[in-house]
User: What shape does this take?
Amino acid sequence: MPFAGLRNNLTRDHTISAWDPEDRAAWDSGNAAVAKRNLFWSVICEHVGFSIWSLFSVMALFMGPEYGISLDQKFVIAATATLVGSCLRIPYTQATARFGGRNWAIFSAIVLVIPTGLTMMLMMNPGDFGFGWFLAVAAITGFGGGNFASSMTNINAFYPQRLKGWALGLNAGGGNIGVPVVQLIGLAVIWLAADRPEIVCAIYLVALAVAGVGAALYMDNLDHQTASGRAMIDCLKYRDTWLICLLYVGTFGSFIGFGFAFSQVLNISFTSAGAAKPALAAAQIAWIGPLLGSLARPYGGKLADRIGGGRVTLYCFVAMIFSSAILVVAGSIADANGKVISGGILAAFITGFILLFLISGIANGSVYKIIPTIWEHKVHTMSGLNALGKTTWSRSMSGALIGIAGAAGGLGGVGINLVLRSSYKSNQSATLAFWIFMSFYVLAAAVTWWFYARRQVTTDQFAAGETTDLLVAGPAHASATTAADDGAGTTDKALT
Assistant: This one.
């Protein structure tokens, strides 16, 4: 009976002991199915969280003059949601280990009911609540952005090294796709009921219930995960941490920043081009870029599994330089023409942004493949650790860097919204912002090439014959430290 199955899932022991994803026999005999089940519901929970995080990118299209919110304020609202979500990624990284992946997934779904309900209240009462209310509620939607870090840390612990690129890419991509999905739902509501934005919120209240119940029934806690604040601190001692943060600012920062801003840029552009219904026209296109970027992310991870995260990331940044150059040229032409956006310029804007979404999605997957690889390389140069200690240290440091890089990447999204706001405010165009974006991609490409893609490193001795192009950068400090058998501590022995 179906209800009996549900009861069994709810009452069974959801804590797994002695989980070893590198044990191939155990993996093939049932652990793979357990990992896939947890991955599936992790994707669902993260997906809904991303959608709530991006809620105001859709609400902005409904916010006409009657709401009393200016264009400038809309960019600030988007930046606030991005900022809070980014900052929460660090504590959320620790939460999975302290409370359990399943338990935290349930809690994070319940918490998001608050901003979703408050957003519904604001949108149903135009003009009754000022900018401060919108800013506060947007900040609370940022809790949805924190879900990414806890989910990624959890899935990182479930999967073996050889499959992490694909698993982490799929998990992150499934979450990222929440951005275009909420925009598609917004488009449907604008088309069918232009004056009923609360419908979008109602849909996500139901989605949160489904995610919470699914997590309760089907997800598990791993008892071996560690929540080490020291790992966060130790992680910051390594140059790789700062380099990965820089790269993730360029990849995920681009994705989430453009995800929040693209609909507004399109709305401005369609208004300038004389579209009869600019909000509807913007909504019809805005979802395409985030969708392609989200779908591309798992394949970026899978490609990185095959040819190396450094190489894939380098190729992506080079492609992003050329994509942003399209925006620079189009914006410069529009500026020279009295800031009038013609059909051709509008097409160039759309093309450039969609390419940036697609390529940044691939790069998101490849950068996250680099993270566990860094610590796998480093741990094999360490002395004083047994096998369990090495595994624990590597997982702990990977989880710490996932949280730190995730926060940094989200802050990149804040920067994109603020740079676009400043550019429009000072020049009534986004051309200056496009120049800044392109310059950053040049810097990121140079860093990737120098530290992670210059030469191939063979790791037969500790990676079962697998190879990677990853050149691990040295630690930021010069003195070595010896780790204890519990896996804590750091080392400055670089891979050579």
About this structure: The radius of gyration is 23 Å. The CA atoms of residues 98 and 227 lie 6 Å apart.
